[in-house]
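Quarterly update from the structural biology core.
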Amino acid sequence: MGRLKLGWIEDNDRRIRILNNVRVKMFREIVYLNVLPRVMSCVMIKGPGELEPTFLPTRELVERLSQRMQRSLRVKKDLNPESFLENYLAKMNVKLEKSRKANLEKQIIYLFSQVENNQVSVDELSDEEIQGLLCFVKENMEAFGKRLENLRKAEDQGSVGGAELDPDMLQEFIDMMKINDKEAGTS
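Predicted structure, tokenized:
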């Protein structure tokens, strides 16, 4: 397009003529650029006294390209190598912890089934295995306790999911939970 000289042009008619010439040259360059594969270009020009700017090729395309450009700049800003690696490592650590917890839970459930089926006696278990069993029982007891509280609240309201609660069955469950708490506390 050549060199662009900046300066104030006193004559209003000459200023408008030069603006129109620059606009035509710029539009021509945009059309040439858009012919190239994988090149998207657009222009928006607003001259003095114009209510609406002029868009080339179309207003919708200019808006779409502007939004895409803003997104790509945001992504580039967010994805410097250090922050990318930090985010990736944090996600992987969370995933690793979840899989470790799931594996530990499966191992403890398997250990419980072995003890229950008399394949392994409690005396044969290591301290680590016993500790794992106790922690697992404690976590499940806490979860059952929370469920029980929710059931009690629902009982106070009259029903759970549209079904009436049997008070005897609920009391039996509560007694069983208390017995399990005492056994867990003494062993």
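Residues 81-116 form the longest helix (36 residues).
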